[in-house]
Design goal:
By secondary structure, this protein is of the alpha+beta class. The chain contains two helices and seven strands, in the order αβββββββα. It has one domain (about 5-175): Roll (PH-domain like). Helices cover about 45% and strands about 30% of the residues.
């Protein structure tokens, strides 16, 4: 056996190992995705059930729905009824109903770490009728340019933007 045949066998073994690894990764990623989807729908379903009960009890019609998840897998649902000028922020076991005018202020906070570019956590807060409510989106350090970090950063921004939209709607009616 010469060196050329030996290298060809080594290359063949590497390619077989690489193929087996990719096949394994494909199978496990499908299982993880299915498990994540099931937990997402379970989490959101519980929150949306309580919001639906509230909607029926108070004769509301929530037409816009914004679903968000934090890094702990806890769901946050923001719903609005533009006709009756009501909104609600729902989490598992806690729902806050308020009118557009009651939402006085909103903000977002990023906790920056010592390392450049690393964010230790993010929160969104809402001041409703003088009471400040804080919603933690990211409780673990992340890089905003990484794949997981982009999702957390985008979720924080979407939550804040939705609250600012409600504040804007409340100010339009007041004017």
């Amino acid at each position: 056996m010469n060196i050329k045949d030996f290298l060809m066998y080594i290359l063949l073994m590497v390619l077989i190992a690489f193929t087996i690894f990719n096949f394994y990764a494909l199978l496990t990623s499908k299982k993880r995705r299915a498990k994540s989807a099931a937990s997402y729908y379970q989490e959101m379903g519980a929150i949306e059930d309580s919001l639906l009960r509230m909607m029926k009890e108070r004769a509301l019609n929530f037409t816009t729905v914004k679903r968000l998840m934090n890094d702990k897998g806890e769901g946050i649902v923001i719903v609005t009824d533009p006709e009756k000028r009501k909104a609600a922020i729902g989490m598992r076991g806690d729902t806050e109903l308020f009118s557009f005018e009651d939402l006085e202020d909103a903000g977002k906070e990023y906790l920056h770490g010592a390392k450049k570019g690393k964010i230790l956590g993010s929160r969104v807060y809402a001041v409703i009728s003088g009471t400040k409510y804080e919603y933690t989106i990211a409780s673990k350090p992340f890089h905003p340019k990484g794949p997981f970090g982009k999702v957390l950063y985008q979720t924080t921004e979407e939550f804040y933007d939705e609250l600012m939209r409600i504040i804007g709607e409340g100010k339009k009616q007041s004017s």
